[in-house]
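Loading example: each entry is read as two labelled lines plus one structure line.
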Amino acid sequence: MARVRVTLKPTVNDPEGITIAKALGRLGFESVDQVRSGKYFEITLDEDSEPRARRQVGEMCDKLLANPVIERYSFDLEGA
Amino acid sequence: MTQPNFGIVVFPGTWSDRDCRYAISTVLGYRASFVWHEDLNLDGYDALALPGGFSYGDYLRAGAIARFSPIMERVTEFAAAGRPVIGICNGFQILCEAGLLPGALIRNSHLEFRCEWVDLRVENIDTPFSHRARVGRTLRMPISHGEGNYQADRDTVEALERSGRVVFRYADREGRSVSSANPNGSVNNIAGIINEEGNVLGMMPHPERACETLLGGVDGNAVFQSIADSVMKFRLP
Protein backbone atom coordinates (compact mmCIF):
# COMPACT_ATOMS: atom_id res chain seq x y z
CA MET A 1 0.00 0.00 0.00
CA ALA A 2 1.12 3.53 -0.77
CA ARG A 3 0.36 6.34 1.67
CA VAL A 4 0.50 9.61 -0.27
CA ARG A 5 0.55 13.07 1.23
CA VAL A 6 -0.06 16.16 -0.90
CA THR A 7 0.53 19.61 0.58
CA LEU A 8 0.65 23.14 -0.77
CA LYS A 9 4.11 24.46 -1.53
CA PRO A 10 5.49 26.63 1.29
CA THR A 11 5.21 29.71 -0.94
CA VAL A 12 1.51 29.15 -1.63
CA ASN A 13 -0.94 30.81 0.73
CA ASP A 14 -3.14 28.25 2.52
CA PRO A 15 -6.37 29.98 3.61
CA GLU A 16 -7.75 26.73 5.02
CA GLY A 17 -4.68 26.17 7.19
CA ILE A 18 -4.72 29.78 8.39
CA THR A 19 -8.39 29.48 9.40
CA ILE A 20 -7.77 26.19 11.23
CA ALA A 21 -4.80 27.72 13.06
CA LYS A 22 -6.99 30.64 14.19
CA ALA A 23 -9.69 28.22 15.40
CA LEU A 24 -7.14 26.18 17.34
CA GLY A 25 -5.92 29.41 18.95
CA ARG A 26 -9.48 30.26 19.99
CA LEU A 27 -9.79 26.79 21.54
CA GLY A 28 -6.87 27.63 23.80
CA PHE A 29 -4.06 25.84 21.98
CA GLU A 30 -1.72 28.76 22.36
CA SER A 31 1.31 26.83 21.17
CA VAL A 32 -0.07 26.56 17.62
CA ASP A 33 2.20 28.55 15.35
CA GLN A 34 1.08 27.45 11.89
CA VAL A 35 -1.19 24.88 10.22
CA ARG A 36 -0.73 23.70 6.66
CA SER A 37 -3.63 21.71 5.23
CA GLY A 38 -3.26 18.93 2.68
CA LYS A 39 -4.62 15.73 1.25
CA TYR A 40 -3.93 12.12 2.16
CA PHE A 41 -4.47 9.03 -0.02
CA GLU A 42 -4.13 5.32 0.67
CA ILE A 43 -3.59 3.42 -2.56
CA THR A 44 -3.51 -0.36 -2.59
CA LEU A 45 -1.46 -1.77 -5.44
CA ASP A 46 -1.14 -5.18 -7.01
CA GLU A 47 2.61 -4.95 -7.60
CA ASP A 48 5.40 -7.22 -6.25
CA SER A 49 8.38 -5.03 -7.13
CA GLU A 50 9.04 -2.11 -4.80
CA PRO A 51 11.00 -0.05 -7.37
CA ARG A 52 8.18 -0.46 -9.87
CA ALA A 53 5.58 0.47 -7.27
CA ARG A 54 7.64 3.51 -6.32
CA ARG A 55 7.91 4.61 -9.92
CA GLN A 56 4.19 4.13 -10.51
CA VAL A 57 3.12 6.05 -7.43
CA GLY A 58 5.51 8.86 -8.38
CA GLU A 59 3.89 9.03 -11.81
CA MET A 60 0.41 9.04 -10.25
CA CYS A 61 1.41 12.03 -8.14
CA ASP A 62 3.00 13.89 -11.06
CA LYS A 63 0.08 13.27 -13.39
CA LEU A 64 -2.98 13.53 -11.20
CA LEU A 65 -2.73 13.51 -7.41
CA ALA A 66 -0.70 16.71 -7.10
CA ASN A 67 -0.68 19.89 -9.16
CA PRO A 68 3.02 20.78 -9.52
CA VAL A 69 2.14 24.47 -9.86
CA ILE A 70 0.96 24.75 -6.27
CA GLU A 71 1.57 21.43 -4.53
CA ARG A 72 4.26 18.96 -3.55
CA TYR A 73 3.96 15.37 -2.44
CA SER A 74 5.62 12.60 -0.49
CA PHE A 75 4.74 8.94 -0.03
CA ASP A 76 5.67 5.76 1.81
CA LEU A 77 5.26 2.21 0.58
CA GLU A 78 4.26 -0.65 2.83
CA GLY A 79 4.25 -4.32 1.77
CA ALA A 80 1.08 -6.37 2.31
CA MET B 1 -21.99 33.56 -44.74
CA THR B 2 -23.16 31.20 -42.01
CA GLN B 3 -23.02 32.29 -38.40
CA PRO B 4 -20.05 31.22 -36.26
CA ASN B 5 -20.51 27.80 -34.73
CA PHE B 6 -19.69 27.44 -31.02
CA GLY B 7 -19.12 24.05 -29.37
CA ILE B 8 -20.02 24.00 -25.69
CA VAL B 9 -18.13 21.23 -23.91
CA VAL B 10 -20.15 19.41 -21.26
CA PHE B 11 -18.55 17.32 -18.52
CA PRO B 12 -20.43 15.42 -15.80
CA GLY B 13 -21.21 18.19 -13.32
CA THR B 14 -21.02 21.13 -15.75
CA TRP B 15 -23.86 23.50 -14.92
CA SER B 16 -23.46 26.65 -17.03
CA ASP B 17 -23.75 24.87 -20.38
CA ARG B 18 -27.37 25.88 -20.97
CA ASP B 19 -26.71 29.45 -19.89
CA CYS B 20 -23.85 29.59 -22.39
CA ARG B 21 -26.03 28.27 -25.20
CA TYR B 22 -28.78 30.73 -24.28
CA ALA B 23 -26.40 33.69 -24.39
CA ILE B 24 -24.54 32.60 -27.53
CA SER B 25 -27.48 31.29 -29.51
CA THR B 26 -30.80 32.66 -28.24
CA VAL B 27 -29.55 36.15 -27.38
CA LEU B 28 -26.77 36.69 -29.89
CA GLY B 29 -28.00 34.49 -32.75
CA TYR B 30 -24.83 32.45 -33.34
CA ARG B 31 -24.90 28.69 -33.72
CA ALA B 32 -24.12 26.68 -30.59
CA SER B 33 -24.37 23.04 -29.65
CA PHE B 34 -23.29 20.82 -26.79
CA VAL B 35 -20.31 18.50 -27.07
CA TRP B 36 -20.33 15.66 -24.53
CA HIS B 37 -16.93 15.07 -22.96
CA GLU B 38 -16.79 11.54 -24.44
CA ASP B 39 -17.36 12.80 -27.98
CA LEU B 40 -14.22 13.05 -30.02
CA ASN B 41 -15.44 15.04 -32.98
CA LEU B 42 -14.95 18.80 -33.05
CA ASP B 43 -15.34 19.14 -36.82
CA GLY B 44 -17.31 22.17 -37.88
CA TYR B 45 -16.80 24.22 -34.73
CA ASP B 46 -15.23 27.64 -35.01
CA ALA B 47 -14.80 28.19 -31.29
CA LEU B 48 -15.11 26.20 -28.06
CA ALA B 49 -16.49 27.18 -24.69
CA LEU B 50 -15.73 25.25 -21.51
CA PRO B 51 -18.49 26.43 -19.18
CA GLY B 52 -18.70 26.71 -15.43
CA GLY B 53 -19.87 24.15 -12.94
CA PHE B 54 -18.44 21.41 -10.80
CA SER B 55 -17.06 18.86 -13.25
CA TYR B 56 -16.60 15.56 -11.43
CA GLY B 57 -17.78 17.22 -8.25
CA ASP B 58 -14.51 19.18 -7.98
CA TYR B 59 -13.02 15.94 -6.58
CA LEU B 60 -9.28 16.07 -5.90
CA ARG B 61 -8.95 19.64 -7.28
CA ALA B 62 -11.32 21.70 -9.41
CA GLY B 63 -10.78 20.57 -13.00
CA ALA B 64 -8.24 17.86 -12.13
CA ILE B 65 -10.35 14.92 -13.34
CA ALA B 66 -12.07 16.70 -16.26
CA ARG B 67 -8.64 17.53 -17.59
CA PHE B 68 -8.24 13.82 -18.47
CA SER B 69 -11.65 13.47 -20.14
CA PRO B 70 -11.43 12.03 -23.67
CA ILE B 71 -12.47 15.35 -25.24
CA MET B 72 -9.50 17.23 -23.77
CA GLU B 73 -7.00 15.82 -26.26
CA ARG B 74 -9.20 17.21 -29.02
CA VAL B 75 -9.54 20.52 -27.19
CA THR B 76 -5.74 20.70 -27.01
CA GLU B 77 -5.47 20.03 -30.77
CA PHE B 78 -8.21 22.59 -31.43
CA ALA B 79 -6.27 25.19 -29.44
CA ALA B 80 -2.97 24.23 -31.10
CA ALA B 81 -4.61 24.94 -34.47
CA GLY B 82 -5.07 28.52 -33.31
CA ARG B 83 -8.82 28.44 -32.90
CA PRO B 84 -10.42 30.27 -29.96
CA VAL B 85 -11.13 28.42 -26.73
CA ILE B 86 -12.75 30.17 -23.78
CA GLY B 87 -12.86 28.61 -20.31
CA ILE B 88 -15.29 30.18 -17.88
CA CYS B 89 -15.03 29.54 -14.13
CA ASN B 90 -14.66 25.73 -13.92
CA GLY B 91 -13.60 25.89 -17.56
CA PHE B 92 -10.72 28.18 -16.53
CA GLN B 93 -9.77 25.73 -13.79
CA ILE B 94 -9.78 22.85 -16.31
CA LEU B 95 -7.60 24.78 -18.80
CA CYS B 96 -5.07 25.48 -16.03
CA GLU B 97 -5.03 21.85 -14.91
CA ALA B 98 -4.56 20.82 -18.56
CA GLY B 99 -1.57 23.13 -18.88
CA LEU B 100 -3.24 25.13 -21.67
CA LEU B 101 -2.99 28.15 -19.36
CA PRO B 102 -0.32 28.78 -16.70
CA GLY B 103 -0.96 28.95 -12.96
CA ALA B 104 -3.68 27.49 -10.77
CA LEU B 105 -6.91 28.51 -9.08
CA ILE B 106 -6.95 27.82 -5.37
CA ARG B 107 -9.46 28.30 -2.56
CA ASN B 108 -10.74 31.87 -2.16
CA SER B 109 -8.60 33.63 0.43
CA HIS B 110 -11.60 34.19 2.76
CA LEU B 111 -12.85 30.61 2.23
CA GLU B 112 -16.31 31.84 1.20
CA PHE B 113 -18.15 30.86 -1.94
CA ARG B 114 -18.84 34.20 -3.63
CA CYS B 115 -21.83 34.76 -5.91
CA GLU B 116 -22.04 38.47 -6.74
CA TRP B 117 -21.56 41.05 -9.47
CA VAL B 118 -18.05 42.32 -10.10
CA ASP B 119 -16.53 45.01 -12.30
CA LEU B 120 -13.73 44.02 -14.62
CA ARG B 121 -11.19 46.38 -16.06
CA VAL B 122 -10.30 45.39 -19.60
CA GLU B 123 -6.51 45.50 -19.82
CA ASN B 124 -6.00 44.25 -23.36
CA ILE B 125 -8.47 44.67 -26.22
CA ASP B 126 -6.12 43.17 -28.78
CA THR B 127 -7.44 39.65 -28.22
CA PRO B 128 -10.17 37.56 -29.91
CA PHE B 129 -12.11 37.74 -26.63
CA SER B 130 -12.07 41.42 -25.81
CA HIS B 131 -11.72 43.62 -28.89
CA ARG B 132 -15.35 44.72 -28.62
CA ALA B 133 -14.53 46.24 -25.24
CA ARG B 134 -12.61 49.44 -24.63
CA VAL B 135 -9.37 49.74 -22.67
CA GLY B 136 -9.94 51.14 -19.22
CA ARG B 137 -13.71 50.67 -19.45
CA THR B 138 -15.22 48.19 -17.07
CA LEU B 139 -17.41 45.21 -17.84
CA ARG B 140 -19.90 44.17 -15.19
CA MET B 141 -20.76 40.50 -14.79
CA PRO B 142 -21.31 37.94 -12.03
CA ILE B 143 -18.86 35.61 -10.37
CA SER B 144 -19.91 32.38 -8.73
CA HIS B 145 -17.04 30.38 -7.27
CA GLY B 146 -15.25 29.11 -4.18
CA GLU B 147 -11.91 28.47 -5.87
CA GLY B 148 -11.12 31.43 -8.06
CA ASN B 149 -7.99 32.64 -6.35
CA TYR B 150 -5.53 32.82 -9.26
CA GLN B 151 -1.95 32.05 -8.28
CA ALA B 152 1.25 31.43 -10.19
CA ASP B 153 4.94 31.73 -9.42
CA ARG B 154 6.44 35.19 -9.62
CA ASP B 155 8.17 34.67 -12.98
CA THR B 156 4.91 33.51 -14.55
CA VAL B 157 2.95 36.46 -13.19
CA GLU B 158 5.63 38.88 -14.39
CA ALA B 159 5.62 37.29 -17.84
CA LEU B 160 1.82 37.54 -18.01
CA GLU B 161 1.90 41.20 -17.04
CA ARG B 162 4.77 42.08 -19.35
CA SER B 163 3.17 40.53 -22.40
CA GLY B 164 -0.33 41.91 -21.89
CA ARG B 165 -1.76 38.50 -21.17
CA VAL B 166 -3.80 39.71 -18.21
CA VAL B 167 -7.00 40.54 -20.10
CA PHE B 168 -9.40 41.19 -17.22
CA ARG B 169 -8.70 42.53 -13.74
CA TYR B 170 -11.08 42.99 -10.82
CA ALA B 171 -11.76 46.70 -10.33
CA ASP B 172 -14.12 49.10 -8.62
CA ARG B 173 -16.95 50.88 -10.47
CA GLU B 174 -14.52 53.58 -11.58
CA GLY B 175 -12.20 51.03 -13.11
CA ARG B 176 -9.51 51.25 -10.46
CA SER B 177 -7.91 47.90 -9.82
CA VAL B 178 -7.89 47.98 -6.02
CA SER B 179 -7.59 45.11 -3.58
CA SER B 180 -10.99 45.94 -2.05
CA ALA B 181 -12.55 44.98 -5.41
CA ASN B 182 -10.77 41.63 -5.44
CA PRO B 183 -13.36 38.96 -4.50
CA ASN B 184 -11.04 35.99 -4.02
CA GLY B 185 -7.43 36.95 -3.32
CA SER B 186 -6.09 36.50 -6.86
CA VAL B 187 -2.57 37.79 -7.37
CA ASN B 188 -2.56 41.28 -8.98
CA ASN B 189 -6.41 41.18 -8.99
CA ILE B 190 -6.27 38.90 -12.02
CA ALA B 191 -9.69 37.77 -13.31
CA GLY B 192 -8.81 36.49 -16.78
CA ILE B 193 -5.69 35.58 -18.79
CA ILE B 194 -4.77 34.34 -22.26
CA ASN B 195 -2.12 31.88 -23.41
CA GLU B 196 1.04 32.93 -25.22
CA GLU B 197 -0.54 32.43 -28.65
CA GLY B 198 -3.52 34.53 -27.57
CA ASN B 199 -6.26 32.10 -28.61
CA VAL B 200 -7.06 30.47 -25.24
CA LEU B 201 -8.72 32.56 -22.55
CA GLY B 202 -9.63 31.62 -19.00
CA MET B 203 -11.78 33.85 -16.82
CA MET B 204 -13.54 33.32 -13.49
CA PRO B 205 -16.49 35.72 -14.07
CA HIS B 206 -19.48 34.55 -16.10
CA PRO B 207 -20.10 36.57 -19.30
CA GLU B 208 -23.02 34.26 -20.17
CA ARG B 209 -24.85 35.45 -17.06
CA ALA B 210 -24.67 39.07 -18.17
CA CYS B 211 -26.46 38.71 -21.49
CA GLU B 212 -29.82 40.48 -20.91
CA THR B 213 -30.93 43.64 -19.16
CA LEU B 214 -33.43 41.53 -17.26
CA LEU B 215 -30.54 39.61 -15.69
CA GLY B 216 -28.86 42.80 -14.55
CA GLY B 217 -26.66 43.69 -17.49
CA VAL B 218 -25.46 42.86 -21.00
CA ASP B 219 -21.71 43.44 -20.69
CA GLY B 220 -20.93 39.74 -21.09
CA ASN B 221 -22.11 39.78 -24.69
CA ALA B 222 -18.99 41.70 -25.73
CA VAL B 223 -16.92 38.59 -24.99
CA PHE B 224 -18.91 36.26 -27.25
CA GLN B 225 -19.31 38.96 -29.92
CA SER B 226 -15.55 39.45 -29.93
CA ILE B 227 -15.02 35.72 -30.45
CA ALA B 228 -17.60 35.69 -33.26
CA ASP B 229 -15.95 38.67 -34.98
CA SER B 230 -12.52 37.07 -34.86
CA VAL B 231 -13.89 33.78 -36.18
CA MET B 232 -15.54 35.52 -39.14
CA LYS B 233 -12.37 37.45 -39.89
CA PHE B 234 -10.40 34.22 -39.83
CA ARG B 235 -12.82 32.70 -42.36
CA LEU B 236 -12.43 35.47 -44.94
CA PRO B 237 -10.17 34.58 -47.88
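The mean pLDDT of chain B is 95.
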